From TrEMBL:
<keyword id="KW-1133">Transmembrane helix</keyword>
<feature type="transmembrane region" description="Helical">
    <location>
        <begin position="93"/>
        <end position="117"/>
    </location>
</feature>
<feature type="transmembrane region" description="Helical">
    <location>
        <begin position="60"/>
        <end position="81"/>
    </location>
</feature>
<keyword id="KW-0472">Membrane</keyword>
<keyword id="KW-0812">Transmembrane</keyword>
<protein>
    <submittedName>
        <fullName>Acyl_transf_3 domain-containing protein</fullName>
    </submittedName>
</protein>
<dbReference type="InterPro" id="IPR052728">
    <property type="entry name" value="O2_lipid_transport_reg"/>
</dbReference>
<feature type="transmembrane region" description="Helical">
    <location>
        <begin position="20"/>
        <end position="40"/>
    </location>
</feature>
Amino acid sequence: MLSFSLFGANYANGFTTFSIFYAATFRIIWAFGLALFVWLCERGHMRMIYSFLAWDKWIFFSRLSYGFYLSHEPVLLYFIWTRRSAIMAFSPFYFITFAMEISVLSLFIASLIAFIIEIPPLMIERKIFKTIRVRAVSDEANNERERKEQNFNVQFYHQRKNDEIVELVPMISPMNRTKQWVEKNHENLKVASTRF
């Protein structure tokens, strides 16, 4: 499927049935082929390709991908507009070197964008909205404690201090608080209702 989308244009010359079919379907077939490729990799049918695509070293480039996307077009336009002569392709080597120049320069600019613009706000956000990360063991203990508290219909405000739970103020649920208030003031309510 992918090869049909890539190389089918070589056989789609003129106004033939194949060229019409190719022009109408090559994008859909390309998308379906990529989806099938990813699905097969995830299911474990292409382990060599999957291990290459899941390599840890790609994380750096994946974080720079948005900056690369933003910077590649201005770099390309700069290279094209500042040429003194028209682009003349004498060989495929010319296009390969041209693409490599643009890719390396775009990658460098994407790195600058990441280090100057993207990373500082992320660091500030992490410092402002710092979350306390607790070990899985303490989470299990908290879940069990919450289940017990729900059984007693009493909840507590908790504060974490060095992975210890400190109970600050017991909080009774609104329904239970209303029940307690009605039970305490039951006699007063009867007296008040008989007056009116």
